[in-house]
Amino acid sequence: MKSSSGTLHAEVCHCGMCRKWSGGPYLAVAAGTEVTFSGEEWITRYSSSDWGERGFCKNCGTHLFYHLKPTGQYIVPAGLLDQEQQLELTQQIFIDKKPTYYAFSNETQNLTEEEVFAQYAP
Fold it and tell me: Can you say whether the dihedral through the CA atoms of 90, 29, 95, 98 is positive or negative?
């Protein structure tokens, strides 16, 4: 999501599945539903739950996206974007699942697992 100032809103997911997939907290940007990929033949899609799938490169293994099946929304790793200077961390989800060994210093909106499922579950 992009604000009127050109800032890209990044979020962090602390759920166990994202932490295992990314090797730490999943730092990402919501890319919306109008997403297209060139080289689709190089993308493997893994259905990681009833509501989500994860995409990665068949060739190098790079994590490319998390796709919410019910809404069609794509969430892409922040590290894939060239606009690092425009990123602002604004939200953390599954905050109650965050391990104690790391913390982000800026203020964000924080949602628990229960709040995430209440907001996004079909």
Answer: negative
